[in-house]
Amino acid sequence: MNEVLQEIPTFTKLTEKVIRILGLNPNEFTLQVGTNTYLIGTGPRKFLLDTGEGKPEYTQLLFDSLKKLGENIIISDIIISHWHTDHVGGIDSILQYARENNLPLPVVHKRLDHKHDKPHQKFQQIADNQIFKTDGASLIAIFTPGHSEDHVAFYLEEEKAIFSGDTVLGQGTTVFEDLGKYIDSLHKLKQFTPGRLYPGHGPVIENGTEKLGEYITHRLEREKQIIEEFKTSKSSLTPRQIVEKIYAKYPESLWPAAERGVILHLIKLEKEGVLQRLSPGSDSESLRGKWAHINSKF
């Protein structure tokens, strides 16, 4: 949990088809020097995958990088992995720069999320399995909810690689909204047997299929630990009591985040008929209340 972050340059030509430009928005969640954004393609018309959070210095870095690549290099399309601000926040500034400098306006693609998408932003809806093509690159959209409901990953056919967004990170583990959907998405990505993952944050992952397996195993092992706590205690438990047991060796400062993760595991197990919530409702108070193993006898 206290892994030392690898240093990453703000501009890196990873392959002939993929260039990584960092969003210059570092914090404890975005890692290194912020969100990874990617220019994709071998010709003059590039795809831009994700846009950072809109830092002016990122916009300048992006367009300076395009100029260095060649006079006629443009962004034909912006493709968004999901609605979180550190991925969509740069859209407006990129479009504004293009207008002010008489550059072609990129078409912006995103899986629509009416709850979170800004009304003034117009997106072309991304469909599951939709194929995006530019010179040297074919991307297949893969719906991967879990981290967020609208999350999409992209399979780069020519490299047998996946742009994993925030479903898999280059270092550490990600957060998620729905654990059941998240694990299903990990299995879905693993079926592509990618050799490489280009994550939304952190360094490139060279052993993509193996890393996806590790993520799945980690989540299922945590789930087994939680079930074992119920079996051992033979009584109802709160998420906090579970955290105190299975995170006993970790600093207490990490326990609130661990408790949120445990609650998501409990919700998944409730949906699967393994656990039941003893406090009715879905508010935070009931979620932090007592839970019981359905097969237990009290």
Structure commentary:
The protein has 298 residues and is of the alpha/beta class. The chain has 2 domains: 198 residues, Metallo-beta-lactamase, Chain A (4-Layer Sandwich), CATH 3.60.15.10; 60 residues, Orthogonal Bundle (Arc Repressor Mutant, subunit A). Helices cover 32% and strands 20% of the residues. The chain has 8 helices and 14 strands. A 7-stranded mixed sheet has the order 1-2-3-4-5-6-7, with helices on one face. It has a 5-stranded mixed sheet with strand order 8-9-10-11-12. Strands 13-14 form a two-stranded antiparallel ribbon. Helix 4 packs antiparallel against helix 5 and helix 6 crosses helix 7. The relative contact order is 0.10. The model has no long low-confidence stretch (mean pLDDT 93). This is 16841_t:CDS:1. InterPro entries: LACTB2-like_MBL-fold, LACTB2_WH, Metallo-B-lactamas, RibonucZ/Hydroxyglut_hydro, Sec-metab_biosynth-thioest, WH-like_DNA-bd_sf.
